[in-house]
Amino acid sequence: MAEAVIDLPHIDAALLPPMIDPAKTALVVIDIQIDFAAPEGLLGRVGVDLSPAEAAIDRCEALVAAARGAGATVALMRVVTRPETDSRALKTLFARRGRPGEQAICRADEAGADYYRIFPEPGDIEIQKLLYNSFHGTDFDAQLQARGIDTLVICGLSTDCCVDSTAREAFHRDYDVFLVSDACAAYEPGLHESALSAMEKNCVLLTTTDAVVAAWTR
Questions:
Q1: How far apart, in Å, are the Cα atoms of 20 and each of 73, 126, 127, 142?
Q2: Over the range 85-117, which residues count as b (16 or more CB within 10 Å of their CB) and which as e?
Q3: CA distance 134 to 78
Q4: What's the CA gap between 45 and 36, in Å, rounded?
Q5: Do the beta carbons of residue 179 and residue 196 sit within 8 Å?
Q6: What is the domain-level CATH number for residue 26?
Q7: For residues 34 and 184, is the Cβ–Cβ distance under 8 A?
Q8: Any stretches that span the bilayer, and where are they (predicted)?
Q9: Is 147 helix (H, G, I), strand (E, B) or coil?
């Protein structure tokens, strides 16, 4: 995955450490859940290739370990859905595509909504969201503000959807946003790279797992 984005502009690793001061930075880990990443989850059961997700999660694990070691805040995002809170617009979108019911993923009372490989520890921020944007309908912004956080380092799934939506919203809320290009993944060829390119042009600085880990282990 790192090789696939090598031609995109990335922040000079030597300049990164003061930009992601652990005292003011949160590592935001998006949607590492059974339905999105595990072989037994919904996407795995319908035959989606999860190898890019697994590779990204390997790097997310390294980032979480580095963040914890440096004292940066770790924030874990999860989609948790219920029939009574399903988005009307999303249901309509899928119905008009001829796929009614497809939006029923990460149900609250099913294992698919559970964390996969990366689990919360005391002191972490945990956010349950209904759709893509981690800020929409949640207290994520308030929790970040209460901790004095002004910088987000984002990783997770998927680059073109929940990562993209969260990164753009964070920028609109005046956070400095870094996206770890090799610790994100998408499920279709080309989507990862195109999403990274669009975000880099508009609202984020791209970095890599190695650069962030080095910055937090100095």
A1: 11, 21, 22, 20
A2: ebeeeebeebeeeeeeeebbbbbeeeebbebbe
A3: 8
A4: 10
A5: yes
A6: 3.40.50.850
A7: no
A8: none
A9: coil
If one counts every other C-beta atom within 10 angstroms of the C-beta of residue 187, the result is 18
- More confident site: 104 or 198: 198
- Cα–Cα distance measured from residue 124 to residue 106, given in angstroms and rounded to the nearest whole number: 21
- Give me the phi and psi of 24, to 5 degrees please: -125, 15
Q: Could you report the per-residue pLDDT of 10-60, keeping only the tens digit for each? A: 999 999 999 999 999 999 999 999 999 999 999 999 999 999 999 999 999
Range of the domain at 176: 3-216
* pTM, 2 dp: 0.94
> Quick one: pLDDT at residue 6?
62
The tokens for 146 are 């209460």
Active site residues: 31, 129, 162
pLDDT over 80 at 136, yes or no: yes
User: Could you tell me which residues are beta bridge partners of residue 73?
Assistant: 26
- The count of domains in the chain is 1
The per-residue pLDDT for range 140-186, each reduced to its tens digit, is 999 999 999 999 999 999 999 999 999 999 999 999 999 999 999 99
Cα distance between residue 142 and residue 5, in whole Å: 33
Q: What percent of the chain has pLDDT over 70?
A: 96
DSSP lists the bridge partners of residue 154 as: 28, 179
Is residue 158 within 8 A of residue 25, CB to CB? The reply is no
